[in-house]
Amino acid sequence: MSLLTDMRMNKKLEEAVRREREMVEQLRIEAKAKRLPLSFTLENLVKYCETHTASDFLIRGFPKPHDNPFREKRPKCSIV
């Protein structure tokens, strides 16, 4: 093989090793994360939803239809 081919292969190998090291580091970070029981997490989620119901537009809707940024927009101009 030529020197150029060897250099390309070496660069690809270095890049693969770098990606694997990043993945290992991310897995180490995730392994250190504090785990909580599902029942505790769901209880907190329900409490959060109950306390924020008044400000949740998906539950109570928008005061005026034009306040809804997701409404279907009508064309402003049409050619007759």
From TrEMBL:
A cellular-component GO term for this protein: plasma membrane
Keyword Zinc: no
Location of this chain's protein in the cell: Cell membrane
Keyword set, alphabetical order: Cell membrane, Lipoprotein, Membrane, Methylation, Prenylation, Transducer
GO annotation terms (biological process): signal transduction
Keyword Cell inner membrane: no
G protein gamma domain: residues covered: 9-80
Membrane topology: Lipid-anchor
Main location class: membrane
PROSITE patterns assigned: G_PROTEIN_GAMMA (PS50058)
Matches recorded under PANTHER family: GUANINE NUCLEOTIDE-BINDING PROTEIN GAMMA SUBUNIT
Family: Belongs to the G protein gamma family.
Identification of the protein by name: G protein gamma domain-containing protein
Source organism of the structure: Batillaria attramentaria
Highest classification ranks of the organism: Eukaryota, Metazoa, Spiralia, Lophotrochozoa, Mollusca
